[in-house]
Task: structure prediction
Amino acid sequence: MIRSLQVGMLCLCFLVVIGFWMYVDRPAFLYPALPFSHPDKSSVVAKLKQADDEMLVPLSADSNTSYFWVGAKSSQGSEASRLKLLLQKAGWSFLEQEGAGYFFEKDQKRIVITSQMWSRDFVLYKVSSEIPADIFQ
Result:
């Protein structure tokens, strides 16, 4: 009886430790599906976790589409401010935000960058290929 109680307590402690670890430093397989196929989730999670808090990280580049994806750590909207600042430095004027869409204009061209909360930790941005990807590096 005492032996089974000890084994039960040991298993409970093990589950609590594993649960706490997964809550604090979630492995990639616990994140939702990505809106793009390449790179895989574990690469994206590693890139975003290693990035500085104020950094926007290029994630995917597909030459067959008219957009690419950029990610950032979610930090109470400061990632959106960083996005606006980077685009303003590249000559784009911020016009307005409507929901998840950020509208910019340059030389009478208008683009929309949409945001998506990928998890509680990260935000993904779908950026028009008219924006050079190198401004995010």
In short: The longest strand covers residues 109-117. The mean pLDDT is 85. The chain has one domain: 31-136. The two ends are 61 Å apart (CA to CA).
